[in-house]
Design a protein that fits this description.
- The complex is a heterodimer of chains A (about 220) and B (about 250).
- Helices cover about 80% and strands about 0% of the residues of chain A.
- Chain A is an all-alpha fold and about 220 residues long.
- With about 250 residues, chain B is α/β, with parallel strands linked by helices.
- Chain B is about 35% helix and about 25% strand.
- Chain B has nine helices and ten strands.
- In chain B, the strands form two sheets. Chain B has a six-stranded mixed beta sheet with strand order 6-7-8-3-9-10, with helices on both faces. A four-stranded antiparallel beta sheet of chain B has the order 2-1-4-5.
- The longest helix of chain B has 16 residues.
- Classes of the chains: A mainly alpha (about 220), B alpha/beta (about 250).
- At the A-B interface, helix 5 and helix 6 of A face strand 6 and helix 3 of B.
Amino acid sequence: MSYDWAWRIIPRLLPALLQGLQLTITITLIVIVLGFFLGILVAAGRLARSPLVNKPVAAYVEFFRGTPALVQLVWIYYCLPIVLGLELPSFASIVVALTLNVGAFYGEAIRAGIQAVPRDQVEAADILGLSYVKKMRFVVLPQAFRIIIPVALSQSISLFKDTSLVSTLGVADLMYQARVLSTQTYRPLEILTIAALVYFVLAFPCTVATRVLELRLARARH
Amino acid sequence: MISVRRLNKSFGPLRAIRDVSLEVVQGQAVAIIGPSGSGKSTLLRCLIGLEAPDSGEIHVDGHLFIRRAPGDRGPLRRTREFREIQRSMGMVFQQFSLFPHLTVLQNVALAPIHTLGRRESEAHAQARLLLSKVGLEDKVLAYPDKLSGGQKQRASIARALALEPRIMLFDEVTSALDPELIQEVLSVMKQLAADGMTMVVVTHEMGFAHKVADHVVFMDAGAILEEGPPAQIFGAPREARTRTFIDKVLTHI
């Protein structure tokens, strides 16, 4: 290739990129926490006996899993302030959108984990007289977590990468900074390569750790 | 002790239990035998309230436990009274069903602590006692995956006994075991029967049914075809179908 790589420009651009990274990480962590709590509610809703509860929740899950995250982001960014009649900072809109999105996925992981616990475990707990809460706490959830945790971790790593979508809405995350700097320096190749590398350097160890955890959990099951 | 009146249960088009009535006297060890699909396990599961019958009544120790009229739908209502009666019965399953994430000791102590509200130290002491009664005193801190099938079943029996039930139900508890491991489980059950526990045992172990049971019930195609003392069922069955079954089964030994 006869392209003239100009890696020398990177060092002075790093502070800006790292500032974007800070926002990316902040968004990721906030959305993981909020999304997980939402996921618990979603799972409970899906497992509820009354169709008045489980049907709307199912619809919510199908919608957020079946449409592109970018579409959800943009729609909520523009429509939420109008619907609520408030002026919302873009940060709030994107956190809401990403939380709703990831909450659907976490919810499905939690529901699947709970339903994967063999029925005879639940029956054994029932005839031992355990109340619903104690049954969940001491018998069902400990076993469900062995499935939920690897899936939830995987989902979280995907979320970390998907936060790059907020750059399209002017939120100054890592991706946004990379694109702005690319336009300013006319060096998209170098800058975007570095940006991709930054995402990778953070995501890859998490992926490896998830796989290790998965293997350890699988060995502990019988 | 247990009174079953006109019980019916279908799974879709399959009539698993047809109009079954049965009386179990306190202190009696009742063996239920019969071919696969005869409704024996379903009957046991209805007895302890894991299946909702389509119609019929079950009385336990003088109390009405379950009553279903033909139109009743939905799962059984787990009222406080229902759960109290349910836990006066203990059940052991074919597939062990020990909680894999807890040690044997924790498995046995779980219900006394969280259902009966006993203190942990007291529950653990009682659990150790029960586990030594079934011969597992050196396995108390092991996890279920480290136990043999026979040990798992004995642990399951200890767990069921921890709530001090008045009735014990056994659902083919030796059917999934290697032959050498069957005796250790049957001895525990034999001891329980000798100690006066009211038991209902669904089993293919004809030796147990013959030697340990006080009363044998033969089921076929969802109905009780014949019942009586072991001498009658095994020695002089009245029904032709009973005779055919006994002949076929006993030639295997």
